[in-house]
Amino acid sequence: MSDKLILSPNLDNADGFFDALARAHDGLEKSTSDALNARLIFLLANHIGDNKVLDQALKAAQNSGHKR
Amino acid sequence: MSKIFDVPLYAYTRSPDQDEGMPVRHPVVIIGAGPVGLATAIDLAQQGIKTVILDDNDRVSFGSRAICFAKRPLEILDRLGCGEAMVERGVQWDTGKVFFDTRQVYEFSLTEEEGHKNPAFINLQQYTFEQVLVERIREMQAVGAPIEIRGRNKVEAIGQHDDHVKLEVETPEGSYTIEADWLVACDGANSPTRRMLGLDFDGQVFEDNFLIADVVMKADFPSERWFWFDPPFNRGQSALLHKQPDNVWRIDLQLGRDIDKEREKRPENVMVRLKAMLGDDAEFDLEWVSIYTFQCCRMERFRHGRTLFAGDSAHQVSPFGARGANSGLQDADNIAWKLKLVLKGKAPETLMDSYNTERAYGADENILNSTRSTEFITPKSEMSRILRDAVLDLSAHHEFAQPLVNSGRLSVPCTYDGSMLNSADALAAPDVTRPGSPCPDAPLGDDHLLGKLGNEFILLTIDADAPDSFEEDGVTATRLALSVRDDPTLTLKRQYLGDAPSGVYLIRPDQHVAARREAFDEPHFRAALRRATGKE
Fold first, then answer.
1. Torsion angles phi and psi, residue B209, rounded to 5
2. Are the Cβ atoms of B391 and A43 closer than 8 angstroms?
3. How far is it, in rounded angstroms, from Cα B53 to Cα B41?
4. For a surface tag, which of A9, B8, B180, B503 has the fewest beta carbons within 10 Å of its beta carbon?
5. Candidates B101, B389, B397, partner chain A, best to mutate (most A CBs within 10 A)
6. Which residues have CB under 8 Å from B487's CB, separation 6+?
7. Which of A40, A42, A47 best tests the B interface by mutation, with the highest count of B CBs <10 A?
8. Left (φ > 0), alpha (ψ -120 to 50) or beta: where does B286 sit?
9. What are the start and end residues of each CATH 3.40.30.120 domain in chain B?
């Protein structure tokens, strides 16, 4: 597996995943939602595993907010 | 309540030094009769170096304080002649459980390494630990070892000179002056020596308060380390329960940031907290209670001229991970043989700079680990707590999250990678014995490998030829000839050879590997011995 973070479209079903993620938060309190997001981050991070990729993802996230 | 706190263990007696007109010069003076000072003194005296310990008190420290002692320090204590006494008096444990709210989320087992003499950990109160060390000193004195503890000798002033240190010492009978070729300051996190020399202690200070209590109770809890995040009896905070000998239990309760310390310390308030934890029916006595905050700090350098700093005086960590006393004992292990060679003129004074390099490396490792544990246990922001709680929730359901749970990363021995005393690795063997590593133990019939290493340079040959000994510039390395057949469990082979057919190891007096190679090559090992003694 490449140790470069994929930044080109790679989701099998982009609209479907966005919808599923948004729905997972339907009706949740903010604190419950935050906890859900946090668990999701760790699950995805563990799946990726490679620290180099994770570092790039962290930086990409830090550098792409419109309010930094 | 144990009487041990009431009895002077090294009562003040007048020293002949006090009646000399001129200051008496000693090779080594140690300030502080805590675990690190006592161990350093034993190590030096065992190698024939006359050593005087000065302590402003005359008895063991109050309260249990450091309680977890790891395998490597126990191996060091074995070399000092009192490891078995510690293990005999201590409580062995190898299981830790982590609870989040009311559920157990994770259980870990410290792997016992097959063929190693010592357990992964024992719990023993610091006062018992100190008592065993003092007993060892008395035993050594009885056979004429050059070691002395002077109780109620408080150092009031220190003068640093090029080739010695001058000390003004206050006693119940007035003050006197002594000199030391070398001074080792083992006087704790608030080191008066550091203050007197005007040296900084920098790092991160944490704001959370912790209540620490020793309770005596007859309880059925197993001898395991139990750690709670956000338990019902201490909402939003953490808690720890750990067994010590003599039915004494250590309890740590996080109290948070802005608290009224005096109020929290009152026994009636402590009892309310403990009953909430242990249940209303639990019968127990409170032996010791204290409230503390902690910091992760170190001195920039552990050597200042002829003064060396060891243990908490040089570096302080949070208690999570048992990295305080355990690292201090590794400091002692590192200092003694080097000082001996320097004092005997067999190594240059600059060898002591390698003490700074190697143990500062160890201190940084400990500070990094204990700072990370502290961040996990006491999250500083709302999001940091959300992430922490996510890990705990996940760990109850999925194995992958368990390595992320950080209730303290327990002390492991330090490998001095990159030390200037190491020679380049010249053997294709396992990493665990690469140059800089402390030698892992292995069974040899009724004995163990580590019992045959230490105190001098050893040339360990495994299925390899070599001379019985060789000397290089006044320092001798003596051969220990072994074969993989000496250990039918193959622990020796697994750790020291791997797939290599043979191996030759140069091992330092502190049982760390200095160099290794497949066969004995005289120029190579002569150079390695020079390098290991600071001459290259």
1. -95, 145
2. no
3. 7
4. A9
5. B389
6. B115, B442, B443, B444, B493
7. A42
8. beta
9. 431-532
Token look-up 């109770």 returns B217
Q: Are the beta carbons of A42 and B393 separated by less than 8 Å?
A: no
B3-90+123-201+299-367 classified as CATH 3.40.50.261: no
Chain A residues within an 8 Å CB radius of B401:
42, 46
Test B394 with A39 for CB contact under 8 angstroms: yes
Which pLDDT tens digit goes with each residue over B36-88? 999 999 999 999 999 999 999 999 888 888 999 999 999 999 999 999 999 99
Asked if the Cβ–Cβ distance from A34 to B386 is below 8 Å, we say yes
Nearest-Cα distance to chain A for B388, in Å, is 9
Residue pLDDT, tens place only, B280-298: 888 999 999 999 998 999 9
In angstroms, the separation between the Cα of residue A35 and the nearest Cα of chain B is 6
Helix (H, G, I), strand (E, B) or coil at B518: coil
- CATH hierarchy code of domain B207-293: 3.30.9.10
Give the span between the Cα atoms of B352 and B355, in whole angstroms: 5
Q: Per the CB < 8 Å rule, is A42 touching B401?
A: yes
3-state SS, residue B506? strand
A24 Cα to chain B: minimum distance (Å)? 16
Tally of CA atoms within 13 A in the half-sphere of B244 that contains its CB: 24
Shortest CA gap B411–chain A (Å): 24
CA pair distance B82, B138, nearest whole angstrom:
12
Q: What is the pLDDT of residues B465-513, one digit of tens each?
A: 999 999 999 999 999 999 999 999 999 999 999 999 999 999 999 999 9
A38/B contact by beta carbon, under 8 A: yes
The burial class, CB within 10 Å (0-12 / 13-18 / 19+), for A20 is: exposed
Q: ipTM surpassing 0.90, yes or no? A: yes
CA–CA separation, B128 and B55 (whole Å): 17
What is the distance between the alpha carbons of residues B429 and B82, in angstroms, rounded to a whole number? 32
Cα B533 to the chain's mean position, in Å?
23
Angle made by CA atoms B316, B319, B320, in degrees to the nearest 5: 125
List the structure tokens of B93.
């444990």
Yes or no: say if B46 and B145 are a contact pair by the CB < 8 Å rule.
yes
B-chain residues within 8 Å CB-CB of A38? Answer: 386-387, 389-390
SS3 at position B62: coil
One-letter amino acid of B195: R
Q: Which of A46, A54, A58 should one mutate to test binding to chain B, selecting the residue with the greatest count of B CBs within 10 A?
A: A46
Measuring CA to CA, which residue among B416, B506, B504, B508 is closest to residue B456? Answer: B508
Q: What is the CATH number of domain B431-532?
A: 3.40.30.120
Which of helix, strand or coil describes residue B164? coil
Give the Cα separation of B188 and B197 in Å (integer). Answer: 15
Q: Is pLDDT at B536 greater than 90 in this prediction?
A: no
